[in-house]
Design brief:
The chain is of the alpha/beta class. The protein has two domains: 12-142 and 275-323, D-Maltodextrin-Binding Protein, domain 2; 143-271 and 342-356, Periplasmic binding protein-like II (D-Maltodextrin-Binding Protein, domain 2), CATH 3.40.190.10. The protein contains 15 helices and ten strands. It has helices at 11-28, 52-63, 74-84, 98-106, 116-121, 182-195, 197-209, 219-228, 238-246, 250-258, 287-297, 300-309, 324-327, 339-344, 346-356, and strands at 3-4, 40-45, 66-72, 92-96, 138-150, 174-175, 233-237, 259-262, 273-280, 313-314. It is globular, with a radius of gyration of 22 Å. Bound molecules: fe (iii) ion (FE).
Length: 359
């Protein structure tokens, strides 16, 4: 578990501890304008990248709202929020992957937000379902899940689709990370949405039968295993590949030289796309500031910081990243399945990976 709490970030913890005391002292002091309480924002974020300092500093410069950050992995943050319950000081939660955003939504962690800015800038298929009160969460960047293959042992024509990974001809050649990881749950869930649960399960059984090894490691480990020839084909999120492509380390360049990439399902529904995103927490003490922050994340400027921090694409069309290496992957047809449906489909996906033992 990886938790960063810098001196500045630890403000959140101290503030939480002092909250009852603070409330008491405020009630005894001269009245404070009600907007004063909105000059701070408590952010729980599963994203932490080099561009973050500029991203957050610009928000503070524009609004005067100071940001206290708690940065940790998605699961530790969710765990923390559940244990804090109604007393949580957190205003905004940023997570990675629709599977996790949907889980947080189902756990009742978010409150719906109605915002003309967010609704006009973020496409409808990249938000949580709006049941009339607004959306619980919004996507702020996108990534695609692609096929990588060893250029010496496989031809790209052999793996044009996710479905092709189940072809018997690929026996002993396929590597994936655990099917229980949110990136896999979302992909398997999307396949289940498109093919129906029985066909998706048959497909998953076929992929498992083709494993070169038991699932282990993250996406970068799959790319490396393709490069060494341990497997001929694997799945990865685009930013892991781009990270290796942009690396100046000779060993990373050697990996990149061995590996080719396929945009899956271009003649069909398109390549599976996932998101990072976030929402306003149910018990947010600074609701107005929280909504302003989400609106800021949808600005062109913040969109570029968010996307470039992790070699992703902005969700707002007018934002351009100028990421030449990412652009070198070329244009592709993205699956237009709503990200809310992808999140929801993880229930089916979890059932499938249990039945076919994709662990
Ligand atoms: Fe990742």
């Amino acid at each position: 578990m990886h938790i960063i709490v810098s001196e500045r970030k630890s403000n959140v913890i101290r503030r939480a501890a002092l909250l009852p005391l603070l409330a008491l002292s405020l009630s005894l002091a001269i009245p404070v304008p009600s907007t004063a309480q909105d000059k701070v924002l408590n952010l729980y974020s599963a994203r932490h990248y080099q561009t973050d300092e500029a991203l957050y500093a610009n928000f503070t410069r524009q609004t005067g709202i100071r940001i206290n950050r708690i940065e940790a992995g998605d699961e530790p943050l969710l765990e923390r929020l559940r244990s804090e319950g109604a007393n949580s000081p957190a205003d905004v939660l940023l997570l990675v992957d629709a599977a996790r955003l949907w889980r947080a939504q189902i756990d009742g962690l978010f409150q719906p937000v109605r915002s003309r800015v967010l609704e006009s800038r973020i496409p409808a298929h990249l938000r949580a379902k709006d049941d009339g009160k607004g959306s619980d969460w919004f996507a702020f960047s996108t990534r695609a899940r692609v096929i990588v293959y060893n250029k010496e042992t496989l031809r790209p024509e052999e793996v044009p689709t996710y479905e092709s990974l189940a072809n018997p001809g690929l026996k002993g050649k396929v590597c994936t990370r655990s099917g229980a990881h949110p990136y896999m749950l979302s992909l398997i869930g999307s396949i289940s949405e498109h093919l129906g649960q029985p066909a998706a399960e048959e497909w998953a059984r076929g992929v498992v039968a083709n494993f070169a090894r038991s699932p282990r490691g993250g996406d970068t480990d799959q790319i490396r295993a393709v490069a060494t020839g341990e497997c001929a084909v694997a799945l990865t999120n685009t930013y892991y590949l781009v990270r290796l492509m942009r690396s100046t380390k000779p060993e990373d360049q050697a990996v990149v030289a061995k590996v080719g990439m396929v945009w899956p399902n271009q003649k069909g529904v398109g390549t599976h796309v996932n998101v990072s995103g976030g929402g306003v927490l149910k018990n947010a003490p600074h609701r107005e500031a929280a909504i302003r922050f989400l609106e800021y994340l949808a600005s062109d400027e913040a969109q570029v910081y968010l996307a470039n921090g992790n070699n992703e694409w902005p969700v707002v069309k007018s934002a351009t990243t100028g990421n030449a290496v990412l652009d070198s992957l070329g244009a592709f047809k993205a699956d237009s399945l709503s990200i809310a449906a992808v999140g929801r489909a993880q229930i089916n996906a979890a059932r499938i990976i249990d039945r076919v033992n994709w662990r």
